[in-house]
């Protein structure tokens, strides 16, 4: 009996440590009128910006007010195509396949894609 209880406890502990080692991705996948997109935790559509260079955001100041960044915390770990970049103000932002991720202030609800094609086509849906 002691052996089976010990085995159960050992298994539970190892599963707890294993799940802690794998962080959940910073995005989810949602469906819009234009197909699958990456979303934030609230289901809001994420976008990429053509003026960004890999690992560097060009959207600061008023731009970042209209296009809020997908913020990363200091404790977040990047994996699986996701990276964390440093912004001009020192804060951290998630990027997917090298492209920084943003929401759009004018999107009102999950599934809105009003930012797609904005600024002469410079803003795009972030797609998985």
TrEMBL record:
Residues 1-23 form the signal peptide. Transmembrane segments: none annotated. InterPro entries: Lipoprotein_repeat (IPR005297), UCP029720 (IPR014558). Keywords: Signal. This is Lipoprotein with Yx(FWY)xxD motif. It comes from Bradyrhizobium brasilense.
